[in-house]
Design goal:
alpha/beta; Arc Repressor Mutant, subunit A; D-Maltodextrin-Binding Protein, domain 2; 3 domains; nine-stranded mixed β-sheet; two-stranded antiparallel ribbon; 43% helix; LysR_subst-bd; LysR_HTH_N; transcription; transcription regulation
């Protein structure tokens, strides 16, 4: 069976116009060419699609069933061709983006919407991971882009664009002993269990670790739930707390006596210089660069 796109298009138009001649006019062909193409299609399918009685062909029951599938099939063929053209022009087969756990509450989906509008056929995969793991995913090649906090030390192989500032604050449940103090000393912080968002690799020390006694989790949702239960204090995004009324009611922002209670970080879009990026990744990077120019 050798069915081509032109045959399907002719079949669709004959069904919609009700005649070979009307379909031929829409296609800019002679009626005999359309009639011959439909006859060949019937041979290929081993089906009678039209009863040729009277002046107009009458579609058979089989033709009506096939017609329901034809429109979608033609759309899929066109999408396939467009995607193949995009791939030949440098579009990646898929784009993997990792978002640091504490940034999942931010408007990172705006970037995905932008990519979907520009490259509707692109497969986008989004992962979440602690900061250290997100960094590792970039350089092992399992992610091409990462939305993450600024790093204390930059590696020569990484490149980035600053996006925004993010404030993290020390919090505890309102029933937690630390929440009963107007100000909390550094010694009290050291002695109380901390719930820390950290790499799944136990050999990597978490960046925002202060307490001697701590529990680890790989995402801020789990950390938040444990903190809400009074299992320890932790560091969470201020924006997340401000946006969720129930967190404001259940959590207390700790006023730390010996050092600033706020941790301000830049949020960056990061990629590796060693990774060959495709069209979609470059599009997003250039869009953000242009956005920074406009904002400044």
């Amino acid at each position: 069976m050798n069915i081509n796109q032109e045959q399907l298009q002719m079949f669709k138009l004959v069904m919609e116009t009700g005649s070979f001649s009307a379909a031929a006019r829409k296609l800019g062909k002679v009626p005999s060419a359309v009639s011959m193409a439909i006859a060949n299609l019937e041979i290929d399918l081993n089906l009678v699609l039209f009863e040729r009685i009277g002046r107009k062909p009458k579609p058979t029951a089989q033709a009506k069933v096939l017609y329901e599938k034809t429109e979608q099939l033609l759309v899929e063929i066109n999408q396939w061709k467009q995607h193949a053209l995009a791939l030949s022009s440098g579009l990646e087969s898929e784009l993997n983006i990792v978002v640091v756990s504490e940034l999942l509450h931010t408007r990172w989906t705006d970037y995905i919407v932008l990519l979907e509008r520009e490259f509707p056929a692109l497969q986008v995969n989004v992962f979440s991971a602690p900061q250290e793991d997100a960094h590792h995913m970039l350089f092992e090649g399992s992610a091409q882009l990462a939305l993450m906090f600024e790093r204390e030390q930059l590696e020569t192989r990484e490149q980035f664009i600053e996006l925004k500032r993010e404030v993290l604050v020390a919090v505890a449940a309102k029933q937690h002993p630390l929440s009963q103090f107007h100000q909390v000393s550094y010694e009290q912080i050291l002695q109380n269990r901390q719930i820390v968002v950290a790499s799944r690799d136990r050999s990597i020390k978490p960046e925002l670790l202060f307490s001697r006694n701590y529990w680890r989790t790989d995402n801020h949702h789990s950390a938040c739930n444990m903190i809400q239960q009074g299992l320890g204090w932790g560091v969470l995004p201020l924006e997340m707390i401000n946006e969720q009324l129930h967190l404001q009611e259940q959590l207390q922002i700790l006023q730390l006596l010996d050092f600033t209670p706020k941790f301000e970080y830049f949020v960056d879009l990061v990629w590796s210089r060693e990774t060959r990026l495709g069209t979609a990744a470059h599009f997003l990077i250039n869009h953000l660069r242009q956005q920074r120019k406009t904002d400044h």
